[in-house]
Design a protein that fits this description.
Length: about 100
C-alpha cells in the first residue's frame, strides 16, 4: 500500500469509526475480490496497467466499460453496473 492509500484508509477509518480489518467502502472490498490479482493492492504493483496512470483522466463511463467489457489482455469482469461504479469511486479516492 502506498503512503497515500494508507493515509486514505486511516482517514476513512477515522471518519466511519470502523476498525481497520473491515472493508470501509463497498468499492474497496469489490476491488479486493475482482481486481487485486492483476492490479495489486495499491493499483500500481500488479501486471495490469498502473491505475494511477489512467484513472485521473478517464470518465466514469470509460472506467465502468473497461471493467464490464474488458480491454486488450484484461478480461470482462462479471459484476453489476453498480458494483463497477462502487469500484470506480474507490479508485477515484485513491487516484484523484
Ligand atoms: C486477469 C487480470 C485482470 C483483472 C482481474 C483486472 N484487470 Fe484491469 N487490466 C489488466 C490488464 C492486463 C490490463 C491492460 C490491458 C491492455 O491494455 O492490454 C488492464 C487494464 C486496466 C485499465 C486501463 C484500461 C485502459 O484504458 O487502458 C483499468 C482502468 C483497469 N484495468 C481496471 C481494472 C479494475 C477496476 C479491475 C477490477 C474490477 C480490473 N482491472 C481487473 C488485467 C486485469
Amino acid at each position: 500500500m502506498n503512503t497515500r492509500a494508507f493515509a486514505l484508509s486511516i482517514s476513512i477509518t477515522i471518519l466511519t469509526g470502523c476498525s481497520e480489518e473491515e472493508p470501509t467502502v463497498p468499492g474497496e472490498a469489490l476491488y479486493a475480490v475482482h481486481c487485486i490479482a492483476c492490479h495489486g493492492s495499491d493499483g500500481i504493483s500488479g501486471h495490469g496497467t498502473d491505475l494511477d496512470d489512467v484513472v485521473p483522466s478517464a470518465s466514469n463511463e470509460e472506467l465502468t466499460d473497461v471493467i464490464t467489457f474488458g480491454i486488450g489482455d484484461m478480461p470482462a469482469i462479471d459484476i453489476t453496473d453498480q458494483e463497477a461504479l462502487d469500484i470506480v469511486s474507490y479508485l477515484r479516492a485513491l487516484f484523484p
